[in-house]
Specification:
Length: 158
């Protein structure tokens, strides 16, 4: 197992501190605020993971949001109110619109929207089954599979 080089870590912290000072900022060196994270650890800023080089929201959080949406649709009750859910969905869209997802980058998008990114089709019941039928009838199937999708929209047509 590789061990950390404490000397290199201290030099890196000093370098970052020096650069921040030049820009008029101050590094908070309190032990509960300054963390050295390894590449295999979740590196999050304000709930957004930055490990992959693209901003993403944790899979666990996305699953909780989808579960709340499902409960709201099926039973009408959820741990999140409709307004809270809309706020979270806007947050997810904002974070994921920085990615190359065909659904996130479309102006018609809301995280619940099920539409064709190649034409004007929108599924009336917001079902992926309707979108799948539309694709089979109007577009070549392999093109859909090649469309870039973010983690939030990965579930479409899978």
């Amino acid at each position: 197992m590789k061990k950390d080089d404490p000397k290199a870590i201290k030099m890196m912290i000093a370098l970052v501190d020096n650069e921040l000072t030049k820009l008029g900022f101050k590094l908070n060196k309190k032990p509960q605020k300054l963390h050295v994270l390894r590449p295999h650890q979740a590196q999050r800023i304000c709930g957004i993971s930055i490990n992959s080089g693209k901003p993403t929201i944790a899979r666990k959080q996305l699953r909780l949001l989808r579960a709340a949406e499902h409960r709201l649709k099926t039973t009408g009750e959820s741990s999140l109110s409709q307004n809270t859910l809309m706020g979270w969905n806007s947050y997810v869209h904002m974070v994921h619109s920085a990615n190359d997802c065909a659904w996130c980058n479309d102006e018609r998008n809301s995280p619940k929207a099920v539409f064709c990114p190649k034409c004007e089709f929108v599924s009336k019941k917001h079902s992926t089954a309707g979108l799948a039928r539309h694709w089979k009838n109007n577009h070549s199937e392999h093109v859909l599979l090649e469309l870039p999708r973010c983690k939030y929209h990965q579930h479409l047509l899978t």
